[in-house]
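Entry type: protein chain
Record version: 2
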Amino acid sequence: MSQQWHAYHVNRVLVPKQKGTKKFLRRYGEWLVCIRYRDDVEGQRKITTVEIVVEKRPWDPVPQRILGETCLPLRVEYGEVEIGKAVRAGGGEWYPQQKVWKLACKEIVALGLTDRIVAENMTITAGTQLAR
């Protein structure tokens, strides 16, 4: 059988407990991640592949680093005039659709406004490093 998996079209993907996975669940148990049904049009073959967990171990993720020039969305409430002036002076831009200011990360850190970052499309955790 060809080991060139990219030549096979993935027809269907099943995750454990979906209909059609019982046989593989009995065989692989909790280690089963998913089952892929693949078609090889050129070779006229169908194959079934399984993805299994081969190792579990503790992991301490490296903190995400956001570069200083990266613009991040920032929430400034109506009536916070001094903060608004500081954001504008730092080069902030107002985005009315999202109702946020966008400002370079280094400016946000310098102004001490990191607690106002709107993290809708990003993950900012205690370990995230904001660059100056």
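Comment: The mean pLDDT is 83.
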